[in-house]
Each structure stands twice: as structure tokens, then as C-alpha cells.
């Protein structure tokens, strides 16, 4: 059912790039308030998670190309995707997440299972028909 609601390219992008619902929520919050520089403590308060976990999320989102780092007295991040295509994909995810919150969160929670299945599928033998 969720496969029908989430387009395949968006589904695959989430599987490849987003590690948790908190990470997705953080990304979308930064996207929606792109003019604000966020430090891990401030974002942690908004996401209701600890600052260490938030720092890991921010570092991962930066490594994925979603955020730029601003270094003043403390390190902060700002939403600044490194390509128009990446920005467009985040926009698509935001629209889909707003409509289909449960299927998207289920997709994220099932990621380890999906990756294990893909790994297992790589070892399946294809039976050749005898000639």
C-alpha cells in the first residue's frame, strides 16, 4: 500500500539518504525556516531529542549535501542544498510527508529490513531453463 503512495524515486531517496524520522523532521524544519542558522542545542529542543543525537543528525545532513555549515562562536547549520535537484527532491518529500506521514515513517522504520532484503536478493540464483 505504501509503495503506491510514495513514488519510487522518492521512496529510494528516503531509503538511501534518511536514517531516522528525527532526521527527516530536522531536515524539513530547516527547509521550512531556511533563513535561520541552527545549532544542535536549539534544534534538539525543537525535535525533543538530545543535543548529541541532534549533532549527529546535523553532521549527517551536512555530509549528504542538504546543509551548509556556519562557523561563528559555535557551529551552526543552515538549509542550503548543494544542487537544485536535491532541493527539488526535499520539496517533493515535504509534500508527500505532509500527506502520507504514516507510510513515510513506516518506510524509514523498515529501512534495515529493506536493506537486508536487498542484500539477500543479490545472492538469489536465477534458474536457467534447460535447452
Question: Could you characterize the architecture of this molecule?
Answer:
With 131 residues, the chain is mainly alpha-helical. Helices cover 63% and strands 8% of the residues. The protein is built from 8 helices and 2 strands, in the order H-H-H-H-H-E-E-H-H-H. Strands 1-2 form a two-stranded antiparallel sheet. A hairpin with a 3-residue loop joins strand 1 and strand 2. Helix 6 packs across helix 7. It is globular, with a radius of gyration of 18 Å. The termini are far apart.
Largest sheet, if any? Answer: 2 strands, antiparallel
Strand percent estimate:
5-15%
Number of helices: 8
Order of strands, main sheet, comes to: 1-2
Contiguous low-pLDDT stretches (5 residues minimum) are 114-120
The quaternary structure here is single chain
How much helical structure, as a percent, in the residues? Answer: 55-70%
Mean pLDDT: 87
Compute the number of strand runs: 2
Helix and strand run: HHHHHEEHHH
Structural class: mainly alpha
Overall 3D form:
globular
Gyration radius from CA atoms, angstroms:
18 Å
The end-to-end span amounts to 39 Å
Topology:
Blueprint (H helix, E strand, L loop, with lengths): L1 H4 L2 H10 L3 H12 L7 H8 L3 H13 L3 E5 L3 E5 L4 H16 L1 H9 L1 H11 L10
Antiparallel strand pairs: 1-2
Helix pairs in contact: 3-5, 4-5, 6-7
Please tag this protein with its features.
131 residues; mainly alpha; two-stranded antiparallel ribbon; 2 strands
Amino acid at each position: 500500500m505504501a509503495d503506491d503512495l510514495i513514488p519510487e524515486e522518492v521512496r529510494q531517496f528516503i531509503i538511501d539518504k534518511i536514517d531516522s524520522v528525527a532526521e527527516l523532521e530536522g531536515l524539513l524544519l530547516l527547509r521550512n525556516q531556511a533563513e535561520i542558522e541552527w545549532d544542535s542545542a536549539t534544534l534538539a529542543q525543537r525535535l525533543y531529542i538530545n543535543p548529541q543525537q541532534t549533532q549527529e543528525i546535523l553532521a549527517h545532513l551536512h555530509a549528504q549535501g542538504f546543509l551548509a555549515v556556519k562557523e561563528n562562536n559555535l557551529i551552526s547549520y543552515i538549509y542550503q542544498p548543494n544542487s537544485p535537484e536535491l532541493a527539488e527532491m526535499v520539496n517533493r518529500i515535504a509534500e508527500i510527508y505532509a500527506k502520507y506521514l504514516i507510510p513515510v515513517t513506516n518506510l524509514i522504520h523498515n529501512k534495515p529490513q529493506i536493506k537486508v532484503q536487498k542484500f539477500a536478493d543479490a545472492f538469489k540464483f536465477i534458474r536457467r531453463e534447460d535447452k
